[in-house]
Amino acid sequence: MFPVGRSGAVLSALAGLAVALGASNALAQAPPGRHTKAALVSETDAVQPGQPLTVGIRLQMEKGWHTYWRNPGDSGLPTRVKWELPAGFEAGEIQWPYPIRFRTGPLVNYGYEHDVLLPVEIRVPAAVPGSQARIAARVDWLECQEACLPGRAELSVTLPVRPMASPGAEAARFAEARRRLPRRDPAWGLSVSSVAGSLSLVVRPPRGTELREAYFYPAAPRLLDHAQPQTLTRQGVAHRLALPRDPNGATVERLAGVLVAATGTGPVAVAVDVPFVPGPARTSLKQENRRP
Description:
By secondary structure, this protein is mainly β. The protein folds into 2 domains: 4-179, Immunoglobulin-like (Sandwich), CATH 2.60.40.10; 189-278, Immunoglobulin-like. It is built from 1 helix and 18 strands. A hairpin with a 2-residue loop joins strand 7 and strand 8 (107-113). The chain starts with a strand and ends in a 14-residue tail after the last strand.
């Protein structure tokens, strides 16, 4: 249900690099020696003044290669974007679909393989001069198999400005990306405690939901020992997920990230943001769950 990729990355000298080649305003072939194609795509076929516009960074990776989530795990770098927008436009943060795990030796990383779309919402002002709007971005990523290569692309999309917009050619891809975005759901009860240097996440799924597996992806690096298994045990109506701490990790007051749960109806990604509670986690605590 929650695959661990066959390939991984040991990032050493490349850890601080963010240089690469290539430019594209479509799904252009990566430069020689590169293994990821990048494109900037729009959910709709036009820009509507005063209405949010959702665009996405699409990364297509060759078989065996992967890029990284917001927290790359034991090594790697998350994808970054620098925007060039018309006056009055403002880009939000990358929305991250939940990742999968890649293991190499003692390292476990978090990221994506094959094809991923990273949505970004752009605020559009009420008045947009001209009949067209050009959205441009420089995107930097790290692509890894047994070795890692930095990637970069200069991307753009030009859309007409109209009072009404229709779904664009990539609308179905945006819908799939949204299905993989973590969501706040008060029906999922969550609490966490820290005891003797370890963490315990108590999960109370909605009534009638069968919880078969679960894995927690922390938003912050150096919080958990990513290579250690997360053990799920049932306790009455609740489940307890053991989260091994990074022995050299920093002390934090809240646990934030994504819980990916395998249920009888398919995988569910739940946004987690709960405070640490001294002592054993209680299964009766009310949900305190906010989007990270």
